[in-house]
Amino acid sequence: MADATHIFPVDFLWGTATAAHQVEGDNTNNDWYAWEQKGGGRVFEDQVSGKACKWWSGHAEKDIKRMADLNTNAHRLSIEWSRIEPEPGQWNHDAIDRYRAILTAMRDAGVQPMVTLHHFTNPIWVAEQGGWLNPEISTLFQRFVQKAVAEMADLCDVWCTINEPSVYAAKGFYDGSWPPGQANLGHYFQVMHNMAEAHAAAYHAIHELRPQARVGMAHHMVYWKPLRSANPLDRTVTHLLDGMFNGLFLDVIATGQWRPIIGKKGEIPQAKGTLDWIGLNYYQRWDAAFKLNALKALGITYSARPGAPKGPQSWGEFYPEGLLELIKRLHRQFNKPIYITENGVPDETDTIRPGFLLEHLQQVWKAIMHSIPVKGYYFWSLVDNFEWAEGLDPRYRFGLYGVDFKTQKRTLRNSGKLYKEIAKTNAISSDMARRYAPEVVERMFPGKVSPR
Ligand code: GAL
Asked: What gap in Å lies between CA 75 and CA 77, rounded to an integer?
């Protein structure tokens, strides 16, 4: 007998999430492919996405069966611009048909798709025209969105315009670890600006085609805290990071005002109110500190709190409570339906994942108990996949199913078994915690669990 059970709303969406380049394989016409070919340590051990999880060549359907096996009723995937529009204004109808087949398989399996229109990759021709620094990019993106949505809207009602603008801009244009490999803070803000324009253009274009579509975007938020809470410099650094990374994009959507800390302020009036729902991608907490020896980066440093549970390398701290705080913040700012469009943990051995899943879901449940309309949760990820600059590094395996990339064999991890129970019962419980993650029982259900 469970001592406590947290039940979710009947219509709650239990989902998983993937992105095209990370699972499809044979994506050879985008800027990430070109980046992988360059070698030079850009990707872990110079690995390439190659066949990835072979979704394009047939494995998507097999993995969709796995979604149904897990009792999940939703999946967030992305479609690859470079496949659908391989050359400017030219449409590849075979690619559109392949996506239609994948979406149809999902619907047949009782899995509601959410389609992301931009998840980090760009057609090579777009990159050659200046990519997201090109002032015309939102027009180019809009043309693609119009075509893709016109071709697929009968199969999908929920559209996610852009995945994680601040991550894309930070990695590609500020720390330079992703294509196009630039390190220019001004470019970071320019890309964010152009992505806000593109998001707005996509939002309006989709609604013109399909007034009933539900359109949002997936925003990555870090739970930032000052390392020394009373230290004014640490507080300033935290404020800066939170503003640039979490706040800026949300602010322009909420107000139409463009207020970067660097560069020209202005307006993107057409962005105001362009969310039918907001997606939150949440992974970690970082504590920020001002350090004199980091003057090149304006003194800005951040890291996991000493002694806190944390991910590999500079991944940051696992901090479930941060999820509730960020949900509350989005609710205050937008008062719109919220989806957790990504949440997950790099953990090949599945030691942490079951407890991580339960503790984060408890925060989602608390938000719902506060009457905040969190409508669904998309776990990152269904299967291990190509983790960008980390490639197939075993330290960065995110799947409920492990994948052997030599044989394509999938193995259901314990966390997958747990998620299957959660989705089936529409609940999390102390009984599940006891069976899958005894280490979190006392934290999640203090004093409530009877001895075995
Ligand atoms: C997100 C990203 C995903 C995936 C995940 C795990 O930032 O949207 O594509 O890589 O992180 O690191």
From this structure: 6
**What was the pLDDT predicted at 172?**
98
Q: Is the pTM of this model over 0.90?
A: yes
Pocket flag, ligand 1, residue 388 (CB < 6 Å): yes
Task: Convert the pLDDT of each residue in 303-339 to its tens digit.
Answer: 999 999 999 999 999 999 999 999 999 999 999 999 9
Joined together, the tokens standing for residue 318 give 């696992």
Domains and CATH numbers, the chain: 5-444 (3.20.20.80)
Q: For residue 343, which of 351, 329, 332, 353 has the smallest C-alpha distance?
A: 353
| 43 CA from centroid of ligand 1 (Å) | 15
Could you tell me if the CB of 347 is within 6 A of ligand 1? Answer: no
168 CB within 6 A, ligand 1 = no
Residue 212: CB atoms within 10 Å? 7
- Give 21-46 pLDDT, tens digit per residue: 999 999 999 999 999 999 999 999 99
Give the mutation target among 313, 342, 381, 396 for probing the ligand 1 site: most ligand atoms within 8 A of CB. Answer: 342
Q: How far is the CA of 130 from the centre of ligand 1 (A)?
A: 24
